[in-house]
Amino acid sequence: MKIIKLAKGFFINEIREFNGFFWTFVFPAVLYFILVSVFSGMGSSGISFKMGVLADEELTGLGSILNEVLEQVSPEPFNVINYENMEQMMDDLKFNKIDVGVRIPAGTSSSLTKSIVFHQEPAKIEIYSVSARGESKMALQILKNIFEQVNLQIGKETASRLGNVYKDIEVSAEAVTPSDEWKFSYSNYLFPAVILMAILSISMFNAPIGLIYNRVKGINRRLYTTTIGSFHYFSAFFLFLLFSALLSVSLLYVIGTTLFKVDPAIMKIEFMAKIVYSTAVLFSIGMMISSFCKKYTTAEVIGQIFFQVFMFLGGFYFPVLNFDIPQAVKWFAKALPTTYLVESLRASLGYDVYSFSEATFWTVPSVWLGVSLIVFIFNFKRVMSYE
Amino acid sequence: MEDILLVKNLKKHYRDVRAVDDISFSVKKGEITSILGPNGAGKTTTVEIIEGLRKADAGDIYLFGKKVSHIDASIKKSMGVQLQTTAFFEYLTVKETIELFAGLYGVTVDSRKVIEEFSLIDKTRSKVKELSGGQLQRLALAVAVVNDPEIIFLDEPTTGLDPQARRNVWDIVLKLKEKGKTIILTTHYMEEAEKLSDHVYIMDHGKIVASGTVEELVKSLGMESFVEFSTTQSEKALALLEGDFKIKAVTRETLSIPTTNVEQTLHVLFSKSHENGFNVDNVIIRRPNLEDVFLHITGRSLRD
Hints:
Low-confidence stretches of chain B: none
Number of helices of chain A: 16
Number of helices of chain B: 11
Structural class of chain A: mainly alpha
Shape of chain B: globular
Largest interface: A-B, 26 and 28 residues
Oligomer: heterodimer
Number of strands of chain A: 4
Distance between the termini of chain A: 27 Å
């Protein structure tokens, strides 16, 4: 009960202050609006890439499924431009006239039939992109994703055409959005990032600045003359942060589902569990920062650095690791917990752009979580300014 | 009357500074005990050790008749504390602050009654950040008693307040005493200690240099009165009167003569001024006070 009362005190004190209210609740929502507006235009959920297609043969039989797929992804997220020769398509790709090029080699129809009916080697489709261009890389990732879903779709359709039950695919297909409904949506792509940004803001600013402010201003000392102990204090503080994060995230959920029609997969337990895990990781880092700062102005600066680095190098808004950046920066980005946290959330929506294993999603952030907590516990007394 | 608090040989040092240097004292139940001393005397360190905010290097503390090695929640339940620096959540209202602190002690209070008692009724819904210094101190006092404690620690409760606000705080402290509360007050205001205290401990450089009731301490000076006057020729007057009295300069133009015979002192003073031609203005005859006691013991003023 004491914990809840103190947490309530922390919370009311925070939200009545303009800064606290704005950065915790208003800013993430505003940022979501701005980003979606800038990148995909308010009111429309998709963006469009220019895709060159060169078919070396006319697709027939089961190969015509590919034609259906190409029709379905056009005009969003891909505006399809057909080519007659490879040289022209490659020139256009190099000169930025198209974002990605797809070549369907001769024999694809028969390869596809063999692979589906006789379970032989899969048909090979060539995709060309420009590694130095972000849009090109993003288009490549999206296209790869689409073709993975096409595999499932082909499985389903083949099974129905042959009158069989394509069991393996059928099970997987339930979790995947059918290809005829799939559209690249920047609001979907952004949703995990904005959620994490809201939690990051609370973790990097509210947590360390709050703790240090309370210490410097003597609020901690005043509280400690009552019957509460450090356990009560930190539990209440954690609860306050958690509640703030919950409200902020809930607000984004409402905006995401009502205004931007974000994928319903955000309602799944898996996605929510990942948010909770991300919260634990980021809170622990915020607590660690607080244990190193004597002034809240210092915490503000350090929090700001962590916030920006975690957000931008963590790939919240762009797939940084796919860009042509120095190797050292790439490794640095790979060491950040947010790189994996945001990717993991995106993976739940089918919007992952890197090829991380499920284990990697958890390992790196867990290391941060563990180290941060250990450092914080060792520096605990500094935070409390206590003898 | 029984001792509610007994402190024996308490020591605390910070690097080379002996903040609290082997002090012992006791506090009787239902009394107001003041620890008087200049800034840096060790008053706050002493009470904060007893409150459990600092650890002593050595010494024993007996609270409610029992020796305590650690000030835990069960002891804190019976303590009320008002720290030297008042710090609350700035955006909580007066009512919310009182209710929050009551909740932290695990008690429920009629917040309106408490607010009325501490004359904050028109500030009930005001945020802490909107309160004046006096109002904030009254809130700090209200919070200090929200758990109905047996013993209340007030650390310089009137520092920085205007005279009216200071008197309001004194009234509240005296009311608390009337309710049977034991109060330990630290202050560097001589008038405050004189007005409120049943017993005074004078501290300087971490040591208790004198103790007793205000009356006892004043009597220990061995003089009844001070004759103070101002003159524009203070150096001349000082030189002429030094042979007759233990005269001291209080300010550049004010001199003070301790005496046990006021009539004779005044006679000598006016005779010498008439004979030697220095002016005597604003003559005041006053009783000795704790400031004089402190000056007598340490050779310094409380305000130094």
